[in-house]
Amino acid sequence: MLSAVTMQQELAEAARRLVERVQAIVVQVRSGSGNGSGILWRADGQVVTNHHVVPQDQAVVETAAGRRFTATVVARDPANDLALLVPTTPLAGLPAAEPGDSRALRVGQLVLAVGNPLGLRGAVSWGIITATPAARPGERELVRANILLLPGNSGGPLVDARGRVVGVNAMVAGPHLGLAVPTHLAETFVQTAVTPKLGLVVVEVALGALARQVGLAATTGVMVTAVAAGYPAARAGVLPGDVIVGVNDQRVTAAQELARELTQPPANGPVRLQVLRGGQLREVRVPLLAAA
């Protein structure tokens, strides 16, 4: 039978290992004059953070191991305060988060937050869940925890006792009351984002008279505002200012439609983007990354 002292030592060691594992997936994000935290969501360097942490379209990301790279914001969800960044040059082999089931959280469950508050790298705070993310109609889904969050924690992970990410820390609602975006919303956001497949930052735009000139019935399209170097769209010659109006001859009028069409790529060959460039409709063939 283990003594109380031995049990305490083993518990302390297990907690230390848990913290180290979570710290490895936490990055520091610098965009403009702001600093915050982010989560390595995929081993290729995709980072999930808060929308408000990255006011500009590019950021400098630094991992816990000291690796630094430039990343482009390729998708935003302001309503849920989420942003997705990808490295300007594709990476591989980085530690990645293990998403947990935020909908299975229970009040009183132990959680911890890891981030970079007030410039302290990899700082940790412990707490408990005070309310689950289920929301009444018209309300945001948020995880509420009795936990200390400070400026700089934004965008970092809220994890359970097994180190699984159950939320993206977003804001402080009161003394020791932190709010986090549930992981299931973040995972859906990542899966439907356009950029991991193409490497684009896009925005919906009105086509106006141009649509009639080229014979389009749609009144809106998806304009490319930035192209991440090294990704399929850049290699295929997609340019900032191109307006995507179709994928494989299926019309798209919004970023969500573009993302949906990209979840059903052709069995063979590249994705065919129909784009408006210089007042003319043309087609750009984009071979997707094998990992996409």
Provide a concise account of the structure shown.
With about 290 residues, the chain is an alpha+beta fold. It is built from 6 helices and 18 strands. Strand 7 and strand 8 form a beta hairpin.
Helix content: 10-25%
Which fold does the CATH topology of the largest domain refer to?
Pdz3 Domain
Give, in order, the helices and strands.
HEEEEEEEEEEEEHHEHEHEEHEE
Query: Helix tally?
Result: 6
Tell me about this structure.
There is one protein chain. This protein is of the alpha+beta class and 292 residues long. The protein folds into 3 domains: 4-87, Beta Barrel (Thrombin, subunit H), CATH 2.40.10.10; 102-183, Thrombin, subunit H; 194-286, Pdz3 Domain (Roll). 18% of the residues lie in helices and 38% in strands. The chain contains 6 helices and 18 strands. The strands form 3 sheets. It has a 6-stranded antiparallel barrel. The protein has a 6-stranded antiparallel beta barrel with strand order 7-8-9-12-11-10. Strand 7 and strand 8 form a beta hairpin.
List keywords for this structure.
Thrombin, subunit H, Pdz3 Domain, elongated, 6-stranded antiparallel barrel, 38% strand, alpha+beta, 18% helix, 3 domains, 292 residues, 6-stranded antiparallel β-barrel, 18 strands, 6 helices
Write the layout of secondary structure elements.
Elements: H1 4-23, E1 26-31, E2 34-40, E3 47-49, E4 58-62, E5 68-77, E6 82-87, E7 110-115, E8 123-131, E9 143-146, E10 157-160, E11 165-174, E12 177-182, H2 183-192, H3 195-198, E13 200-206, H4 209-213, E14 220-227, H5 232-236, E15 243-247, E16 250-251, H6 255-262, E17 271-277, E18 280-286
Antiparallel strand pairs: 1-2, 1-4, 2-3, 3-6, 4-5, 5-6, 7-8, 7-10, 8-9, 9-12, 10-11, 11-12, 13-14, 14-15, 15-16, 15-17, 17-18
